[in-house]
Amino acid sequence: MATPLGLGKPNLLLNELYRRIKNNPSLSLKIFSALALNPPSPKEDLAKRFFVPFAKRHWGVDYPELQYAKDAEANLLPSNVRIHEFYFRAGAAMNSPKLQQDYQSINYTRVAESVYNEGVNLVVQMIAKNPKSETARYSLSCNPDVTLDLVDLYRAGKKNVLMVGMVHPDLPFLGGEAEVPADFFNLIIEDTTIQHEIFALPKLPISAADHVIGFYASQLVADDGTLQIGIGSLSDAVIASMLMRHQNNLLYNELVEQIWKNGKKSSSLPYEKSPFKEGIYGLSEMVTDGYMHLREAGILKREVIDEKSGAKTYLHGAFYLGSKKFYSWLRELNPENFSGIRMTRVSKVNDLYDPHELVLRMQRRNPRFLNTCMQVTLLGGAASETLENGSVVSGVGGQYNFVAMAQELKNSRSILMLRSVRESKGKRFSNIVWSHGHLTIPRHLRDIVITEYGVADLKNKSDEECVKAMIEIADAEFQEALVKKAKQHRKLSLDYQITETAKQNTSENVKKFIARGRQSEVFKAFALGSDFTEVEQNLVAALEPIQNLASTPGVSAKLKLFAWALNGLVIDANPFAAELERMDLIKPQGLMAKIYRGLLLKVLNEQKIYEFN
């Protein structure tokens, strides 16, 4: 059986199929899919106090969690069920040997062929029905991506596959190739009792480092161009800075001058800082909230002629996933905005290999393909989904497709974004590394890399030039070790010295830039809105340092945590009554609850002092 990645899974139907096969060992089931979405299930009591009330409000009390995914992640899958995914929810499969063993490393554009070759005989998908039409009209809506290519393969091969669509009343009806006739399916399930929420992603806070990365990237987005961008706080940061560039250009230009005041700005890169006069055209495997914000701001307005329908189109997408506000926007599109979004197959969006290749090339003018990764080597290779030990964190998805396409199109650039440092259990690690055993993007496709410390232009550069550029955007704490390694392997001249500019690459300087003057007005943690209340936003910021310290091993970390809790006991709780009430800690019962209260008061009070200073 196959079912779409992300939002397009009919959870109720999948749960019933899984239950029946799980309870009958004489049957077997293979599921081919990706990105199983379930609300997180925190284990710690402090996290539960925050998350459980939010989850009930956001997803509803009757949200049908995907049971096969829960069992797989908890290592509870029965022996007669196998799950083959080509993309995991980030980190979801790290503790599941079965999921890791059955993972399939495939480019997004090759998934349909892989599923076809496996001999899948059933496809189930959540679909939308047009409530305004007199005759029944259906849409693959959020997931025409693989389904269209898969059905074409079965028809060309004259093989049978059972197509089942399950209508959800809240799923936005979208056109383009996503609109299909009723006979596209062998069976359509429409049940008026289906009223549960569709899965919406809550907006996460944008950190100081994210904002600076996004600000750098926004200067490389070409007016009269094409934009592909993904999801997450880094992508949100890019969108926020693009909005500032267009709507508050005077401030944007002031900040451009400030950020490059002491930095080395590559003269070879096509920087821009003017408003988007001609606008941009969206081309993205994944359509997210960001495109909604760009459309509403008058940035997403460059139109191309869709080669299939002849309709003016400002956005081609293969699947969508986002917030409640985004889904509502899609449902309420006016006729002009509705006709300008064309949902289509991923092979068309992510590739140029199409009967209309020349048209696609003309549409994709001045493209910028923005993606995130985990680590980049000094020689320009990028690891985006697999750890050094082979454990898969997420998946290749379409990243390789877009990076490779950037090499094929005129005036095109691939931009990989990452934070230069990650913290784990109280320790800092560099994400700029000498080497990595499982690269997603090979170094011969190296192009632009952005961290919070700047922009490295690696395209057509020598290995030594590449190494120097990467050191310039690495954290100062790790530069000496990186230089030593590069010299040891004869990729860097022995007389090379780290520049004074690079030595200023510290997280403290990043935070100073964000907090300085008027920047704090635009570089907000929830610059694109939030699903959290104001009180919950304060708690999100407070819980992060507490959880980081709690996960740090060693006696000193535990003593520090205890000291924080003691310190919090003497802090006036009145200014934080709303936060304590939200966490049910006004009158804590038991020792642990009192410790939680102390920890929260300590961190909330520090944040308040920092805010006023």
CATH superfamily grouping of the largest domain? 4-hydroxybutyrate coenzyme  like domains
- Major sheet summary line: 8 strands, mixed
Unreliable stretches, pLDDT < 50, 5 or more residues? none
Number of helices: 23
Shape summary: globular
Report the mean per-residue pLDDT as an integer: 95
CATH topology of the largest domain: Transcription Regulator spoIIAA
Straight-line distance between termini:
58 Å
Strand content: 5-15%
Q: What is the helical fraction, as a range of percent? A: 25-40%
Structural class comes to: alpha/beta
Q: Describe the strand arrangement of the main beta sheet, using strand numbers.
A: 13-12-9-8-14-17-21-22
User: Measured on Cα atoms, how large is the radius of gyration?
Assistant: 25 Å
Would you identify the CATH architecture of the largest domain?
2-Layer Sandwich
Can you put this structure into words, describing what you see?
- By secondary structure, the chain is an alpha/beta fold.
- It folds into three domains: 6-189, Glutaconate Coenzyme A-transferase (3-Layer(aba) Sandwich); 208-372 and 391-419 and 440-468, Transcription Regulator spoIIAA (2-Layer Sandwich), CATH 3.30.750; 534-612, no CATH class.
- 38% of the residues lie in helices and 15% in strands.
- The chain has an eight-stranded mixed sheet with strand order 13-12-9-8-14-17-21-22, with helices on both faces.
- The N and C termini lie far apart (58 Å).
